[in-house]
Amino acid sequence: SWDRNLEGQLPEQWSTLTKLQKLCLDENQLSGPLPVDWSALVSLQRLDLGHNNLSGQLPRQWSALTNLQYLVISSNKLSGQFPHEWSTLTNLRELRLHYNQLSGQLPEQLSGLSSLRLASNKLVAQVPQQWPELVPNLQDLDLRDPRYQLSGEILTGKCEVVPGFCACHLW
Length: 171
Description:
The chain is mostly beta strands. The chain has one helix at 131-134; strands at residues 7-9, 22-24, 29-32, 46-48, 53-56, 70-72, 77-81, 94-96, 101-104, 115-117, 122-126, 140-142, 149-151, 167-169. The chain has a 7-stranded parallel β-sheet, with no helix packed on it. A 7-stranded mixed β-sheet has the order 2-4-6-8-10-12-14, with no helix packed on it. The longest helix has 4 residues, at 131-134.
């Protein structure tokens, strides 16, 4: 097996790697905030920072990462609300932010998503009735967590809503 023993914070200086397309630093002991300056990584298509000790908020400036297709920051200590500015990430196909401490509303404007995993956060939401039109390509939805306070109809006819739990797999 690989020894993944990287420690410390994510380097702001990496923001100069503007041709970087893929960065996988999952399953390490990285800590600290997500670097705001990484918004300059405009060629980035895949970013995996899952299973670390990263903290702080999701940078709204990352809305500049418009080539991003796959974003995993699950199993960290992220908090705060989901940035509305991320609605510009129209190429994003998979978003995995489960097992953090994110709060606030469900993201509404991520039209390209096929997979959205937000389980075990602190979301509170009135799910918009038009959500199926807002995320028409969604095939994998994971919102499991008894702390969620979700209400409304989610993907009517394709997903059943159980208080505090919703997992949809639409093949």
